[in-house]
Design goal:
This protein has 2 domains: about 30 residues; about 180 residues, no CATH class. Strands 1, 2, 3, 6, 7 and 13 form a 6-stranded antiparallel sheet that branches. Strands 8, 9, 10, 11 and 12 form a 5-stranded antiparallel sheet that branches. It is globular and about 90 Å long. It has 3 helices and 13 strands. The protein is an alpha+beta fold. About 20% of the residues are buried.
Length: about 210
Amino acid sequence: MKRILIMVLGAFLLIIVLVVGLLLYPVVFPYRSSEAQQRRTLSDGFGDGDQIYFLLDYRVSRARRPVWFIMPIERPPKVYHRSLALYRFDVDSGRLVRLAILKENDFPVQFNARYTQFTKVDEAIVFAYRAGWDSEQGVLYAVHAWDPVTQTFVLGGPDADPVIETAPEYQVHFSDYLSPWTDNPGILPVTELQERLAVVPSAAWNLPD
C-alpha cells in the first residue's frame, strides 16, 4: 500500500512540475516573433501578343506564439494584409502594370488562384480561379473578363459572386479546358513567367509592406 501511495505521489508531483514548466516557459523563454513575411503566389501567365496577363495572390503575415500542450502546437500566422490582383507584363518594354484588385482580406480556406484558367474571347481576356467551396455543389469559381481596350471588366469584377462549375458563365468558356492546363493555348507556365518577371523592380509591383 505504501508503495502505491509513493507512486501516486510521484506521478502527482511530476504533473505539477510539467504544468509549472509549461506556465513558466513563456517567461523564461519569451517568444521572439519573426519579421513579417511577404508571400507572393503567381498564377500561370496568359500571353496575348507581347502582353502577359496573370494573377498575384499577395500576403503579409507574421508567425504567432505556439500553443503548448505537452509539445508546442503551431498556430496559423496572423495575416495583416492579403489581396488578389490582375497584372499585365509588357515583354518588349519590361513594364509591369497592376490592372485591378479582385479581392482583399476575406479569403476562404479553399481559395486557390495558382491554377487560374485563361482564354480569350474577341478582345477580352477571360479567366477563372477557384474562389471557394459549396458543401452541396462543390468548387466555386470566380469568372472575369478584362477588356484591354476599355481597361474595364466586361464580365465579373471585384464585386462579382463566384459560381458553381456547372454555371453557364463557367461552362461557356472552360468546359473543354485541357489538362494539364499548360496545354491550353496561350498559357505560360509559372516557372517561365517567374523568369520573365525577374527583371521587374520591387517598387513596380505596387504592394504594401
